Amino acid sequence: MGPTMANMIFALCRTDPDVPKHDGISFLLVPMDQPGVEVRPIEDMGAHAHVDEVFFEDARTGVENVLGETNGGWAVANTLLGFERGGRGTVLWQPFREELDNFIELDRAGTIYGGSTEVQKGILGERMLGLPKEPRADAGSWREIQLQ
């Protein structure tokens, strides 16, 4: 797989080292093609790279790329996480339920190409359960059947 498709990445960066914990963190948007940003693909066991790792070395971004307030990035991050983790995630599946039900309804056809459901059950009964063969109207030789 080729290089990352993203043109921006967000980063939570400590912008004030003199304040405690969650204070002093800013939420920055960083262009992926700027100097100091290195993207390396992470390959899975099949040699496919579906995700990347990003390294920053002396990367800088402009003040216009600060989301929210400088040193207020923790609040921005929590808002973002709220969308990723919560509320909507519990109801987003609902529009797809009708599509799933329609797909399941169109699926029962899968048994036709291997024989009707009744034929398949007869084969399983005879071969797996050892039940007697179903009586057949076409028993006998081809000539005997044609003379009936």
Uncertain stretches of 5 or more adjacent residues: none
Largest β-sheet summary: 3 strands, antiparallel
- Beta-strand percentage? 15-25%
- The CATH topology of the largest domain is Butyryl-CoA Dehydrogenase, subunit A, domain 2
User: Treating each run of at least 4 consecutive H or I residues as one helix, how many helices?
Assistant: 4
How do the SSEs run, as a string of H and E?
EEEEEHHHH
Question: How are the strands ordered across the major sheet?
Answer: 1-2-5
The number of strands is 5
Rg, Cα atoms, Å: 32 Å
Structure class: alpha+beta
CATH superfamily of the largest domain: Butyryl-CoA Dehydrogenase, subunit A, domain 2
Shape: elongated
How would you characterize the overall build of this protein?
The protein has two domains: 8-90, Butyryl-CoA Dehydrogenase, subunit A, domain 2 (Beta Barrel); 93-130, no CATH class. With 148 residues, it is an alpha+beta fold. It is elongated and about 100 Å long. The strands form two sheets. A three-stranded antiparallel beta sheet has the order 1-2-5. β3 (37-43) and β4 form a beta hairpin. The protein has helices spanning 73-85, 94-106, 117-127, 142-147; strands spanning 8-14, 25-31, 37-43, 49-56, 66-67. It is built from four helices and five strands.
How is this structure best summarized?
With 148 residues, the protein is α+β, with helices and mostly antiparallel strands.
